[in-house]
Design goal:
Layout lengths: L11 H42 L3 H45 L6 H10 L6 H14 L13 H22 L29
Amino acid sequence: MGLFGKSSEKPPKDLVTEWSQKIRKEMRVIDRQIRDIQREEEKVKRSIKDAAKRGQRDVCVILAKEMIQSKRAVTKLYASKAHMNSVLLSMKNQLALLRVAGALQKSTEVMKAMQNLVKIPEIQGAMRELSKEMMKAGIIEEMLEDTFESMEDGEDMEEAAEEEVDKILFDITAGALGKAPSKVTDALPEILPLCCCGFRR
């Protein structure tokens, strides 16, 4: 029998070092994903400005909803980085405990962090594999699949859009759109569209 009730192929210290390296690798994946999303956001902002100049508020609304989804995605990715940092800190604590107790200890903090990390699509595979290794080592207990994480997104999207679209349009177009209406279904402000032929859509 090994330190964890089962035979272990690697010493506990090596396991902790390996887990920390894997976490840092996946953090770099998250960083790249955030940068990619933010680059796409800039493209969407430019598209909103172009649509605003043409007086196409309906197009602006659709694009603004895309921005809401992007910002939510970035928020979740930053939250996942916070969970990863929590795991890294716990790994440092495990090394300290290992020197004193001679064995790795079960950690509820790591358990909670890993439960959140296995829900992130961009790193899901790696985090599931890592959680299996940690379960085998006795750091965490077996985790149940949580299938309800994304249910609220579809249900709340329209309500969130009603509250946020006009603000986004106002910010991006410097007040040309979104200054007066409280809902995205309201009429265009009288100053738009800016059309040389004088027609209003």
